[in-house]
Recover the amino acids of this structure.
């Protein structure tokens, strides 16, 4: 990724999972800003939305609140 972030610094946003889950509001604001989107507090309450229709396995994941992740509590086996 280092090559691409140097070559396209305004096109790639590196998102650290620990930072996202530990500083959700601050990090999500940075991400929204990078994407030129207007941020609001509803972004943090996404899991309570009833109007999201997802037809994949992520439907279950999107209904959960974001949990704080650290390198010691990440279960990489659940990703695969």
């Amino acid at each position: 990724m280092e090559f691409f972030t140097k070559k396209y610094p305004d096109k790639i946003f590196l998102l650290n999972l620990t930072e996202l889950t530990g500083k959700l509001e601050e990090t999500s604001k940075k991400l929204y800003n990078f994407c030129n989107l207007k941020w609001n507090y509803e972004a943090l309450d996404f899991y309570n939305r009833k109007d999201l229709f997802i037809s994949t396995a992520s439907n279950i994941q999107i209904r959960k609140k974001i949990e704080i992740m650290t390198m010691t509590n990440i279960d990489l086996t659940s990703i695969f």
Q: What stands out?
A: DSSP finds four helices and no strands in the chain.
